[in-house]
Give the backbone structure.
Amino acid sequence: MRQIKLLLLAVLLLAAGSVMAAKQTKHTFAIANGNFIYDGKPTQIHSGEMHYARVPAPYWRHRMKMMKAMGLNAVATYIFWNHHETSPGVWDWSTGTHNLRQFIKTAGEEGLMVILRPGPYCCAEWEFGGYPWWLPKNKDLVIRTDNKPFLDSCRVYINQLAKQVLDLQVTQGGPVIMVQAENEFGSYVAQRKDIPLETHKRYAAQIRQLLLNAGFTIPMFTSDGSWLFKGGAIEGALPTANGEGDIDKLKKVVNEYHGGVGPYMVAEFYPGWLSHWAEPFPRVSTESVVKQTKKYLDNGISFNYYMVHGGTNFGFSAGANYSNATNIQPDMTSYDYDAPISEAGWATPKYNALRDLIAKSVSYKVPEVPERIPVIAIPNITLGKSVDVMTMINTMKAVESDHPMTFEELNQGSGYVLYRRHFNQPISGLMRMKGLADYAVVYVNGEKKGELNKVFDKDSMEIDIPFNSTLDILVENMGRINYGARIVESTKGITRPITIDDNEITGEWQMYPLPMASMPDTNRLPAGYKAGMPVLYSGSFNLDKVGDTFLDMAHWGKGIVFVNGINLGRYWKVGPQQTLYLPGCYLNKGKNDIVIFEQLNDTKQSSLSGVTTPVLDKVVK
């Protein structure tokens, strides 16, 4: 018996040693002779983009297993500066979705190479492209150019990042094989012709140097449209192309900026596309993605699916684009992206078709597809209490000024601000709010009079304010611009004077900040309700089992939802998104708490439900 025990112990020790050895196996990676060289052999990178900030941390491993089962060998991720510097000088690299080290380590354990895209500018339909909102408060600071205060701020961020990841580089035995310098800078150069090309190039080179100075020893790359390499390429970094389907063109332009040789990579290959509120949900056909993937595989072109799994813009993390000089196109809460792996981590028909193709083309074994995370319906969530937000505001202390103050002047990054002014004399006519950013609901004496917003480029309305009356304007920041020349227009709230009948309204403005940075505690607030006025609904519900679900918001107006302290993001009746993804890992077996901030309140609500299928493609006119 003793011999058997010793034999079993020896087997266990040998197995443990094998596992430890596997975990400690060091790899090499380099760019040489026109190839990516991994462990001394030319390698084709089959990568998928997934942003750890958009996926609940308990689900990271599941999504990575989905990627492996699709045949991919690498994961790419943006690193959003503002996700980690949560307020000036305050950094979070350890809690929940902020734990970048754990994300990288998990990828390594799952056998995925890791590609880091730290910006400092990221785009990605993310709030302000990843920049902290307070940067422009420094009037001497100009983002994304050769500006000392800005570059000094970038240095602090990059050095903070380096502390987290340097030992995880492949040169130190980790899974991180490449790091990107800046991002899509060629497009910014093309849009900002008011800045000399020499200044642009000097700035981009300094970003690369900051990464080198911080201790990055792995290969660097840039990422631009193939026609934008002149402005975007950085000496010492491999140029890669975004969305380039013409292989001959790809090779020609990379050769031009990389000494006549590859490797050749499409760093953003789009199997889907981004989506805005109030616009149709975009679809990219499975057939076209499979066809283009086969071209890359057959011709030895490395690629990164942007996105392979999009995830969710939880909280106030969604950014905005624009289509003219004055409007905005806010990005939806769902970042499903019509990607091969859906927002909830499901294998789509696109996923299955790509898996079949890639499995036939690669030399390594493609594992089985992991099981889907359980999905549950929640038939009825009773909302037992309502709180009149205006009553709540009347107990708050106002910030007073002669002019409406911006979010930034109020030292507030996200959420809402109520602007209030009392009128001793009547006034009527066309009210213009040229400086609105971004969405306003207008009230007179506690009665809703209308809505203005920059999504539909509506910034004026007729108004009648009687003698001895109060004007209230509830303004929402719908996300700072994340792409293009107008990214410098990041100020939120009411940014220019309001006029009524061409009279500028000055003096005696009151501002009530409503950042909604945490779930409101309605237990401490008196119950109340008034039709048409902003309202908080709250309730609780019990679950025998947990699983993913989708809150049905189709019959609501506009607002945000908190569950167990987590801000699930914005909803808006215009669509196309009509449900909010609620991950099962955010639910409790037993009691769960919910709070909904409803801005429009056109219909009194008493309950809502969780459904088993998302609705992301229903625009309501």
User: Anything to note?
Assistant: DSSP finds twelve helices and 36 strands in the chain.
